[in-house]
Amino acid sequence: MGQALEQQHSVYLEEFERRAGERSSEPAWLSKRRQAAIERFERLGFPTRRQEAWRNANMHVLGQQHFVLAQSGGTVGSSALAVADAIRLVFVDGRFDSAASALGDLPQGVSIQRLAEAWGDPLLEQYLDRQLDAEHPFAALNTAFAADGVVVHLKAGAVLERPIVLDFARSETAGQAAYPRLLVVAEDNAEARLVEHYRGPADTMYLTCPVTELVIGANAGLEWYKIQEEGDAAFHISCVAVDVARDGRFNGNSVASGGQFARTEVFLRLNGEGADAELNGLYLTGDGQYSDHHTWVEHRVGHCASRQRFKGVLDGKSEAVYDGLVNVAVGAAKTDAQQENRNLLLSKRALAHSNPRLEIFTDDVKAAHGSTVGELDRDALFYLRSRGIGQADAQGLMTYAFAAEQLEPIRVSAVRDYVRELLFARLPGDETVREMV
Fold it and tell me: What residue stretches are annotated with the SUF system FeS cluster assembly SufBD core domain (predicted)?
């Protein structure tokens, strides 16, 4: 396996060099960052189980593939996620689809641009690739190959009431990679809501490797939603970096139900006193799926609060990981950090890894973490059966009760309803449970 991964490193470098002409018109600062990124990837390579953060991840199948950069968007159907009055940008195989997109009028102080048309914006030189872990191989791949994406800039005091929905769809073209890049800068007192939706065909093998950078200014607020329902044969590896300034607010929700291999990493930094962050996750797995959430929350200063709550429902022969680290820096007194992970196994063949952790380097903090992995309560199942409810329906009701708590923090009603339908589709006794709840 190691030799295969090493060969793949060189393959990606060769593709990068082969496509140099396509980048000839890019600004010098971007060329330097891309070159540094591909060199970094060559040095780092694909991660292996020997690295602590990847010890549960089987990279063998990914290491055997070479996903070429997607060149043009194929044909896909419309998304079932319909958010009323939303600003919608659609990308097919990583390429912008103007016909399917709808921006409408934007309020004063709000700018939304395609990444491919925004390289000359000084905002990108200032922020792009500045919030990320410099030693992350997949973030490096994205920086090297990102061809399109979205740049959102909210000037101080700007409030965007309409949600921004980013629809990243994949066609049935196999063997391609897309590297969407998202940058949102919300200056002081600005507010916005962002929805990322990733979807693809069931049987097509492809790679989606997005990077999202969110910069939240003083007393600014950002709601972020990610719905990952890639096709069953797909790979999805995502990096999200969030910086929150003084009195800033971040409400994040990640829902994962697709892909044969899916991983979302969130790097969250609370940089100013009074910063507040909530991060919730729901992952649903079935036969042959691996779903992974890694979170790093840094309390860099005192008087900040963070709350994390992740839940997983695992069925069939599937595997899921939640690994979360909360770091409280020296001098970050009056920190309040809560972290919780709960997993429900619906199959004897399902495997959940839960590893919430705390690193505290100061006194006078409030911090707690909890973790459970278990099955449906047999006594409760027996009670429901004794009331005339069938086995599958009883299991579905109890599973819904376990997972539905994760719907509550979703403030965009259309997104909440959509996630509820994703949950229903995974429940035993689907239709009956839908009617009963």
Answer: 172-402
Last residue of a domain, one of 346, 376, 406: 376
**297 in Cβ contact with 308 (< 8 Å):** yes
Residue count (the chain): 437
Beta strand extents in 200-234 (DSSP E only): 207-208, 211-216, 221-229
Q: Is residue 34 one of the residues assigned to a domain?
A: no
Joined tokens for residue 40? 């970094």
> How far is it, in rounded angstroms, from Cα 367 to Cα 361?
12
DSSP state, residue 138: H
Domain boundary among 357, 376, 395: 376
Q: Where are the beta strands (DSSP E) in 24-142?
A: 68-69, 87-92, 95-96, 110-114
What is the count of structural domains for the chain? Answer: 2
Residue in 99, 1, 111, 108 with CA at minimum distance from that of residue 46: 1
The token duo for 330 is: 């020296």
On whether the pTM is more than 0.90, the answer is yes
Residue 338 lies in a domain: yes
CB 253 within 8 A of CB 107: no
∠ CA 189-192-194 to the nearest 5 degrees?
A: 150
| Burial category of 232 from C-beta neighbours within 10 Å (exposed 0-12, middle 13-18, buried 19 and up) | middle
